[in-house]
Amino acid sequence: MDKLLERFFRYVRIETQSDGDVASCPSTAGQFNLAQQLKSEMEELGLSDISLDEHCYLMARLPSNVSVDIPAIGFIAHMDTAPDASGLNVKPQIVENYQGGDIALGIGDEVLSPIQYPDLNKLHGHNIITTDGTTLLGADNKAGVAEIMTAIAYLVAHPEIKHGDICIGFTPDEEIGRGANLFDVEKFNAQWAYTIDGGPVGELEFENFNATSADVVCYGTNVHPGTAKGKMVNSMNIAAQFQLMMPSNETPEATEGYEGFYHLKSMKPSVAKTELGYIIRDFSREGQEQRKAFMQQKVDELNLQLEKGRVELVLTDSYFNMREMVEPYPHIIELAKAAMIECDVQPEIKPIRGGTDGARLSFKGLPCPNIFTGGYNFHGIHEFITVEGMEKAVNVIIKLVEKTTEKYS
Ligand SMILES: [Zn+2]
């Protein structure tokens, strides 16, 4: 397990922040530095079919060591870190045997406080890895990368553990929503996979929002204000009227758990034309369709009140709840649950109020739930992870491999 920390520290020191303003894939060259490092470690481990493509997708396989047919399973993590905070010169610090209270982050004024982050109260006695207060940590998702590599190294060193083909995939640009874009599911060639990209120990996720963007365009008539009487139609007034027709208690700030919402996230106003950018989220497909129909109905009502054609709605689906792709194969979740329980981890199944690469991979034909890394507070300087949580993740990966072999032999 010393190797686990060594790996993690080695990976977080390589800057791999992705950049949503760059169209190419990978969006930043730094991601190749980590990919090259991982590729040579895979070579040292003697893995098969190692490939790093021009878009920075790294894949490899630990071949089956049994003669029976055991389904190939995959483990996936992303190499980039979030654009929200710097990932340059990450200097992780370890607080051994945490006993409560504030943790000073580096030598500045920043602290990690249990008042702000009550999860810390559950971690007394644990070894906590934090930032130095100037960068994010990059546990999202280099902890996942380190955990997968450590588990694979363990399996290589312990051939007495029988397994089928184990496929490993490390992706670029997940944080800017593109990690699944160029992922070659056919080449990866697993029956199903798990992203190791969740938070606290026990997290197991296979449900995410259905997501649609809804652009409402309101058209006005612009006339010089001095001679506007009876002629001007101000599109900003139409837009305001529309927003007031939306349910005020179905917004992100008023919902949680399995509740969906409408969210007005941008506005481009002028007298002649005002664009309202909404997103619609719901866990059920039916609910999502109802929400889309509701918006259309409100647009139609408004058009009846005004002159026809003043308001337009454009709906674009962006991703779907992976539950419908995972549920037909209940063993994928059952194996993960069983592996966790055998590793003394209580599975915490909860819906993701967002999307994941796993969801998009699931719709590309690779069912792909998400498993914890052991980390907290991703994407900022208060990110931290426990050594114990990382070890649990490694154990769960190894156990999952064993349980799969058990089930199919
Ligand atoms: Zn992540």
UniProtKB/TrEMBL annotation:
Residue ranges constituting the Peptidase M20 dimerisation domain according to the UniProt record: 207-307
Cofactor annotation: Zn(2+)
Binding-site residues, Zn(2+) 2: 140, 175, 379
Source organism (scientific name): Photobacterium angustum
Cofactor note: Binds 2 Zn(2+) ions per subunit.
Family: Belongs to the peptidase M20B family.
One protein family per Pfam: M20_dimer
Catalytic site positions: 80, 174 (proton acceptor)
Keyword hit for Metal-binding: yes
Residues that, per the record, bind Zn(2+) 1: 78, 140, 197
Protein's name according to its UniProt entry: Peptidase T
Lineage: Bacteria, Pseudomonadati, Pseudomonadota, Gammaproteobacteria, Vibrionales
Entry's EC annotation: 3.4.11.4
Annotated HAMAP family: Aminopeptidase_M20
Location in the cell: Cytoplasm
Entry coiled-coil feature ranges: 285-312
Function: Cleaves the N-terminal amino acid of tripeptides.
Reaction(s) the record says it catalyses: Release of the N-terminal residue from a tripeptide
Major localization listed first in the record, in broad terms: cytoplasm
Keywords from the UniProt entry: Aminopeptidase, Coiled coil, Cytoplasm, Hydrolase, Metal-binding, Metalloprotease, Protease, Zinc
